[in-house]
Every structure is written in structure tokens, then in C-alpha cells.
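Researcher: We're teaching a course module on how sequence relates to structure. For the next exercise, students receive a sequence and then see the predicted structure as C-alpha cells, so they can try to spot secondary structure elements on their own. Here is the exercise chain.
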Amino acid sequence: MLWVDPGEAPGATAACRLGVRAMSTLIRTDQVPEADRLDFVRDMTATTWVPMECRSELGGYRGEFRASGLGAMQVVVMDIMPITVRRTPQLISQADPDLLKMVLVCGGNSCVVTQDGRQAPLSAAEFAIYDTRRPYEVACGTGGDQPTQMMTFMFPPSLLPLSRNRLRQLAAVPLQASAGLGDLTSQFLLQLARNVDHYSPAEAARLSTAALEVLATRLAHELDVCDWGTPEARRHALFTTVQAFIRRHLGDSRLSPGMIAAAHHMSLRSLHQLFHDEGLTVAGWIRGRRLERCRRDLADPALASRPVAAIAARWGFRARPTSAGAFRAVHGLPPAEYRMSARIVKGYAPQANDSSFASANACGTAN
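Model: And here is the predicted structure for the students to work with:
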């Protein structure tokens, strides 16, 4: 079966520009030969989450995974047969993204999350968090032959207004769906994930912020923390959320401070102040991220036949003569020369008729 990343799928960017609701990606193992299914699941988990070992005692493994983006969060809803996944020290790299995962059991069999010497046995409506930069194990429905319905949420820990040490205290701690706050958290996240295909990109951004607020409240309650909602902590969480929103919309040439402020229910003045407090400007940060994405694509041999103008357009730049100067100011060379130097360093000699070297004036200034 072909795994398609919705963010890179043809037409995905255009759909977001038109406000079309983003569809989730369905992955089913029954479309893979039985002998290859566990290897397929192993590859799929590395693509969807992070590299992990996968083990199942059942032959002809069966599972269904529905992956979606929800603002700054990635959500996967699963209906899976018993399986154990391990994130071993050998699979962890310092270059890996800094991500926190949360697993919520919806029904069927239970699962057990293990990290830092703690175990969290989870039944329906219970959840636990764990850090992908430290070893962990998640055993789903082991000891049985019935499926487990569950979902995972993955996001940068910086989106939560809790320190890293506080979050570490909560790794592999079972968070029960007791009456009150516990039940509210579980039910909110369940409904949020089940209806993810019905949200527009702007709605998804707002709902992900709300989900993180609800989760932070539940975690703070578990820690009995009184100062989790300090202005500084909330400001940092908002800044990180805005940055994530910008990264997801770099390919939209209409991305602007006005669009960003509207998506986060804040004034333009507040948005500019948020970046000013970090010694940055909104337009400058957008331009920097776009130039970096262009640089990455220009250095990618797989994209050698793609014209510079097409790469610029992919990342939301408008064609203006000043673009080559903007790229050169940051990376030291015009786009075409940078591509040539990168390919020579990697051992890929450019062709004399390579059309991608025809113009270096592809990238426009940020909005």
C-alpha cells in the first residue's frame, strides 16, 4: 500500500488555500501480503511517529490507522490487533525532533506504557504521555487476540506551559478518566479526534490550542501545580503555537500577519509584540523559514530537475527580482549557484542544459 503524507499530497496546499477541510490518511494492513504486514507496520510507524521495533505473536497482522493533522498536533486513530512497540536507545538520535506523545485507549483491550522505570496500565478512556527522545515501550492488547481501539496525539512539548522536568515526572503515569476533569479531558480529546475531518485549517489550529489547554490543565492537576498558567508560560506556549502555524502554511503565498492573527484570535499589535519580545519580526521569521525550505530543496538531488522558480513557488514566494538578493544575503550565493555548489559537494555534476540554472530570480520577499 502506498503511504501518502497529506501535507505533501498533490493539491493539499491548494485545498488549504481554499479553506477546504483537510482529509485524513487511511492506512490498512489488509492491503499488504500477510508475510509483509509486520514489516509494513514497522515502516509505517517510523514514517508516522518515530522509528520503533514492532513485535506481534499473531500471524497475518491486522490493523487500521487513520492519520490526520490537527493544528500543531498530529493525531492517529487506530484499530489494531495485539502488538508491542519499543523505542530503543539505538533508534534514538539527537537529530530527532523533540516530540511528546500521548496515547488514549478508546475501547477493546487495554495497553501498557513503560518509560523511566514506570508502567502505566491503561483501560478505556485512560491515557498517558511519554517522551520520544527517551526509550519507551507500548504494549497493546498483549495476551489476547482481540483488537484495541486507541488514538495517539503527538506534538512538541514546548506547546505545554509545563517545564521539561515536570513533564518527565508524568511520563508513563496513568491518567484516569475519573469524574470531573479527568472525564472532561478524555471525552474532549475523543470527540476532537473522531471529527477531525470536519475541521477547516483555521478551525483545526484553534481546536489544537484548546486541546493543549485542556491537556495542560489535566496534567497540572495531576502535579498539583499552581503556577502552570503564569503569563510567561502562556506567552511561550502561544509563541510556539504561532510558529507551528506558520511552518504549516509556508506554501501559502497569502500567509501574512493578518492571517496569522485571525487564526489565533489575537490583534495584529499583540502578534507583532509577541515576536518583538523574542527579538524577531513576523515577516522576517516567515521569510527566514521560507528561504531555509528553498535552500533544503535546492540541495536535494531528488529535486534537481525542478526549476528554481517552482521551488520558490512551492514555499509561498512570489517572483520578484529582489529574491536572489534575499537568498544570497542569508546563504551566501544566489539560488542557482547554491544549487550547483551543493550538487558538486554531493558528487552530482550538473548538466549543461539544466533549466534550473536559468534564473536565480525566483524567490520573492515575505509578506
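Model: If you want an answer key for the exercise: Residues 1-22, 346-367 have pLDDT under 50 and may be disordered. Residues 217 and 357 are 53 Å apart (CA to CA).
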